[in-house]
Amino acid sequence: MTPKSFQQIDKFARDLPKEVRATVYDGSKSTSEKRYDSIWRDYPETADVLRETAGKVKQHTLEHLDQYLEQAEKSLTAAGAKVHFASTGDRANEIALKLMQERGVKKMVKSKSMVTEETHLVPYLEKAGIECVETDLGEFIVQIDHDHPSHIVKPIMHKNRRQIAKSFEREGLGDYNDDPETITRRARVHLRKKYFEADCGVTGANFVSAESGRMVLITNEGNARFCMAATKLHIAIIGIEKLVPRDQDLSLFLNLIGRSGTGQQLTVYQQFINGPKTPGQPDGPEEMHVIFVDNKRTEVLASECKEILRCIRCGACLNVCPIYRQASGHAYRSVYPGPVGAVLSPLLAGDKFPELADLPKASSLCGACNEVCPVNIPIPDLLLCLRDKGKREGAKNASAGTPPMGMYAMMASQPSAWKAAMRLGYAVNITPQAMMNVVPAAQAWTSVRQLPKWRGGKFRDWMGEHDKDAK
Ligand code: SF4
User: Fold this and answer.
1) pLDDT tens digit string along 91-121?
2) What is the pLDDT of residue 352?
């Protein structure tokens, strides 16, 4: 079940099969721990300096995006690539399809790219009769299961190896075997054929240097490299915010993205590409097209939440978020889940903002997302800003909250009601737990928590006494 609003998040999380919840919780927790070790072991003195510097570089790039896009276009064109600009996701899909149709492409292989999830490229191309194969192992499993990714780095965070083994068996990829190495080897054999059959490879890019036009693709499976090198036509579909000014900036970001996303010092494969193959080169695409996608990014850039465009899609904020860990990514009803999604998805929704105006409420505002973000995005501030926007724009799902919180808000804003409620504290405390559990509004809390023991004394009386003494 996908919840219609985050007011159902609690139910959604509780309805998740225990196995799924445990898988998501363990997967995100262990990745967070690896991130912590990898960053603080190697940069005990400067970890925060790195994050702040990376944040400043990205912010500077965003503030001069027009210049850097022009520079990147020139650099890429000089290296033999053809650059296109798409104002919307639909337009990006149209450009990609036209390029394929003009060249008679029938089969395409694709590496993981969030922006193509955003534009729904694969269903669009499949509708036009082009066979599309996801080559990232996680995305491949999502594809054969007709599922949706639940994490931006680990799309199958919600699945365990037994479920995957069953999917492989069902798809004729071997008898049931849940050994991860066997699963990976089988996927590799299957996908290897697909690379050679394909006429086109589609990728995103993690970064693009405006200085040289160099695109950087990072993977742990080497699949982006195969998509590009084994096919004649390479189409890179890239969000305009992926630029960095210079080649030398890349070392900072590559250092941070692997550590933040998976706790690796560097991801296993790093491709630096800035054009199709040149005469004499043994492999690589004969033609390369780069499609820079806006799709509401310039609107976000003009908004009070523009810092979210610094995001390098590492997934660290998801892994550390207590809401994500309980609810999993599908609860966010959008391509981008977790804290980054709670900010980015409503903003990218444009006119449909009210439909996702509840997402910014999916946060305890604990601040953990900001602490781990490698580009120092003040996510809790942006969440508050969007909650406010939702209220101002009258989005129904942005207001009120659950009945207990509504009651709390009423009490906290009226001193007499607050005073009366404080007097009730003792009575509530001595009420047996079993009786509390039958009050529907209190059930969600009391069924899993014990109230602390009443220690006696009333702060207001105490304060009154001391106030008198002071006089
Ligand atoms: S918001 Fe920060 S932590 Fe979250 S995915 Fe983006 S870069 Fe990573």
Assistant:
1) 999 999 999 999 999 999 999 999 999 999 9
2) 92
Chain-centroid distance of CA 354 in Å reads 20
At residue 208, the 3 state secondary structure works out as strand
Q: Which residues contact 150 (CB under 8 A, 6 or more apart)?
A: 24, 156, 157, 158, 328, 329, 330, 337
Ligand 1 binding pocket mutation candidate from 317, 324, 363, 381 (most atoms within 8 A of CB): 317
How many whole angstroms separate alpha carbon 456 and alpha carbon 35? 45
Ligand 1: residues with CB < 6 A are 260, 311-317, 340, 372-375, 377
Residue 74 scores a pLDDT above 90: yes
Do 238 and 290 contact (CB within 8 A), yes or no?
A: yes
Backbone angles phi, psi at 371, to 5 degrees: -65, -30
Give percent of the chain above pLDDT 90: 75
φ/ψ of residue 4, rounded to 5 = -80, -25
Q: Report pLDDT for 440.
A: 67
The pLDDT value recorded for residue 6 is 57
Q: Which residues pair with 237 in a beta bridge?
A: 291
Q: What is the DSSP letter of 455?
A: -
Q: Which amino acid, one-letter code, is at 329? A: G
Say how far apart CA 253 and CA 436 lie, in whole Å: 52
- Concatenating the DSSP letter of every residue in 115-179 gives HHHHHTHHHHHHHTT-EEEE-SHHHHHHHHTT---SSSS-TTTT--HHHHHHHHHHTTSSS----
| Helix H or strand E encompassing 229 | helix 223-229
The closest residue, in CA terms, to atom 4 on ligand 1 is 317
Q: Can you tell me the mean pLDDT for 227-239?
A: 95
CA pair distance 369, 365, nearest whole angstrom:
9
Nearest-atom index, ligand 1, CA of 313: 5
The answer for residues whose C-beta is within 8 angstroms of residue 115's C-beta and 6 or more apart is 92, 204, 237, 238, 239, 293, 295
* Contacts of 324 by beta carbon, 8 Å cutoff, 6+ apart: 24, 28, 318, 337, 338, 339
- CA 312–ligand 1 middle distance (angstroms): 6
Percentage of the chain modeled with pLDDT above 70: 90
* This prediction's pTM: 0.87
pLDDT digits (tens, 9 = 90+) for 59-68: 999 999 999 9
Domains within the chain, CATH numbers bracketed? 1-45+315-400 (no CATH), 47-295 (3.40.50.10420), 405-470 (no CATH)
* Helix (H), strand (E) at residue 319: helix 316-320
Question: Atom 2 of ligand 1 has which residue's CA nearest to it?
Answer: 373
